[in-house]
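User: My collaborator sent over this chain with a note saying "see what the structure looks like." That's all I know about it. Can you take a look?
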Amino acid sequence: MRWALEQIDQCLFNYGVVLAGCAIRPPGTSAVTRQQLTEWFRRRGEGTDQDYAKLIKKLLIDGFLARDGDYLWRC
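Assistant: Without extra context I'll predict from the sequence alone. Here is the result:
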């Protein structure tokens, strides 16, 4: 899990876009699309797209990631 969180931070740093604030996220939140994060995982580790989809789902359920539409950000 630590590897995944480090990768998310790096992906947000390199590809994150700042989203406008709303009821579910504070202003200035840096986010990436699910596709960007999946591609980042693919380039940096071993596994399949299914593995990465499961990892993203687990991170969402465990509260490490949040989602709005297709955008994901670190909580």
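A starting point for your reply to your collaborator: The helical segments are 2-15, 34-44, 49-61.
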